[in-house]
């Protein structure tokens, strides 16, 4: 068990599932996470390949909640990403990513992994400046949202994962030599949006 990481904006201690190449807590609502080369968390649905070496920092948050952050990184290689992460166990998790697509465009991507097999859904391309990501738990369901800078929270995905989940931050560089992700303006609330689909 790793030593806890304290970020005042998150109301529970965070711990590393996989240690990073480096990290810094830079204030009450900021953390920077560096992923090393060839790091990812993905189980290929078309084959046996599974990679689970991306650094992930997670906390157990009770009840309904919303956790959000502004996410930024200097893209160096395809699939470099900053991620809000939901973790149940080694075979069951979910990622909401600001990721560099194979076409070289920053893209909102979501991935849900069940029993070690991942799906992969590209939603839309974005101007990477000003992107905020958000994960909400309400009852037994999770919702992923993205705000591209206009204040409207776009629903990216609505799904369930069985079992107690921990939530936090992940950095990845599946094809590259590493990536440093800046999570800022981290906020937590125990009052989820009343309507997950109206942009609030």
From TrEMBL:
Pfam families: DUF1349 (PF07081). This is DUF1349 domain-containing protein. InterPro entries: ConA-like_dom_sf (IPR013320), DUF1349 (IPR009784). It comes from the Bacteria. Gene3D superfamilies: 2.60.120.200. It comes from Actinorugispora endophytica.
């Amino acid at each position: 068990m790793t030593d806890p990481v304290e970020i005042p904006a998150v109301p529970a201690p965070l711990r590393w599932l996989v240690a990073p190449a480096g990290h810094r807590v830079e204030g009450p609502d900021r953390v920077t996470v560096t992923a090393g080369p060839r790091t990812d968390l993905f189980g290929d649905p078309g084959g046996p390949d599974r990679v689970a070496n991306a650094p992930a920092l997670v906390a157990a948050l009770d009840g309904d909640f919303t956790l959000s952050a502004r996410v930024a990184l200097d893209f160096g290689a395809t699939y470099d990403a900053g991620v809000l992460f939901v973790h149940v166990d080694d075979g069951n998790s979910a990622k909401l990513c600001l990721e560099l697509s194979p076409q070289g465009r920053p893209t909102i991507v979501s991935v849900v992994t069940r029993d070690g097999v991942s799906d992969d859904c590209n939603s839309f391309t974005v101007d990477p400046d000003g992107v905020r990501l958000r994960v909400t738990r309400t009852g037994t369901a999770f919702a992923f949202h993205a705000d591209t800078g206009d204040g409207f929270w776009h629903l990216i995905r609505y799904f369930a994962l069985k079992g107690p989940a921990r939530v936090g931050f992940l950095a990845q560089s599946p094809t590259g030599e590493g990536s440093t992700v800046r999570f800022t303006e981290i906020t937590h609330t125990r009052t989820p949006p009343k309507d997950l689909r109206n942009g609030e």
